[in-house]
Amino acid sequence: LHKYVLSLREEECLEETVFYSSLLPPDMQVSLLSHVLSDVDEDLRAQCVQFALQHNVPIEDVTMRIYKKIISESSPSNNDIISVANISDTDARLVGAVSWLLLTETQRSAALREANRLIRRFLGARKHAPACAVFEMIPTDTIEVIHREWSKEFQSTPLPADDANAVREYLCLQAYLDTHQAYNDWCSHSANRPSTPKYSVDKITFSEQVAQEEKKKSYEMSLQRWEQNLTVQTQLTRDKMLNVLLFIDGGWLVDEVEGTDLERVDQLEALRRQCIPATTALLVNVLRESGQDQAVVELCDYIASEQYQLYKLFNQQQLKDLLEKVYDSSIKCECDPLQFNEAEQNETSPS
User: Fold this and answer.
1) Over the stretch 280-332, which tens digit does the pLDDT of each residue have?
2) SS3 category, 88
């Protein structure tokens, strides 16, 4: 029967392949189907899932086995080709593997946990392009689907800890990736300031003078639009970065409930120590470049605040670099960089 199934797959008889596999013991079904279906074209995978469901094949075990096989076999190579999207062949295979876990809604919670795991892996290696690619694969209704699937069996009972933490982590990662996109947009817009036109200093005719005045007027209007758009982009970037630094209910990538995956906890802490100081440095750059030195000094209050305890995520050199920039900004806006915001002190002091 095993050989017959293999022959059916070679003939691309997908329904028959699944049907005859279903006649084998469950563990052999998973092993065989994860082997013969792993190279099925993406547009035929949903059809294979339907065949599996019709014949009571444990398709979620099959797709998870395929996913893990791809992950385990995808190791970086010196011959990796980097695509236009700045993603290597190996990373592209890792990203594509997630699609196997998105074929059934009942597997969505597992898909989210694995997608989060891959994003953590990419961000830890400072690979933002593949991290974004994985995130974009996650359907936008994922949180809703997870809650709906859970409530079918457990009604209003809260999600289990690992699922609840995965949902929160997804929102944290979304906030961080949004921040990087906003910063890249800000950099792009800042670099595209309209060029100052060259005006003739020689004696010119009346018609040339009119044309020069029109050119000057057009430049001034373009400059005004650029400045307005830069102000909007600066505020958007600032808000998104603060959203990461001051993430609600305990902080960015901090679980609200204790989970069971200790390796994940260590990865989250490592990412916090990597990304929070980096985000702070980018925010300081944005604020200083846009002349918001007072906001730089105020940012120092957040970093030093016992409410957020962000200073614990900085090493000595990072704190030194930050304080030097805060000091420079404090001189420009003539304020004391060591004076905490009085209102914040009142908020964080015990009543």
Assistant:
1) 999 999 999 999 999 999 999 999 999 999 999 999 999 999 999 999 999 98
2) strand
With CA atoms as reference, report the closest residue to 92 among 124, 127, 120, 142: 127
User: Is 159 within 8 Å of 147 (Cβ atoms)?
Assistant: yes
First to last CA, the chain: 74
- CA 257-173-298 angle, to 5 degrees, is 90
How far, in Å, CA of 183 to CA of 279, rounded? Answer: 10
Q: How far apart are CA 183 and CA 77, in angstroms?
A: 31
The alpha helices in 11-41, defined as continuous H runs, are 14-21, 26-36
Distance separating alpha carbons of residues 267 and 255, to the nearest angstrom: 12
CA distance 130 to 79: 18
SS3 at position 202? coil
CB 272 within 8 A of CB 185: no
Contact 26, 58 (CB under 8 A): yes
Please check whether residue 1 is in contact with residue 23, taking contact to mean a CB–CB distance below 8 angstroms. yes
Give 82's strand partners. 88
SS3 state at 30 = helix
| DSSP-based three-state secondary structure for 336 | coil
DSSP string, 55-80: TT--HHHHHHHHHHHHHHH----TTP
Q: Which residues contact 165 (CB under 8 A, 6 or more apart)?
A: 255, 256, 257, 259
Between 211 and 291, name the one with better pLDDT: 291
Average pLDDT of every residue of the chain: 89
The letter for the amino acid at 113 is R
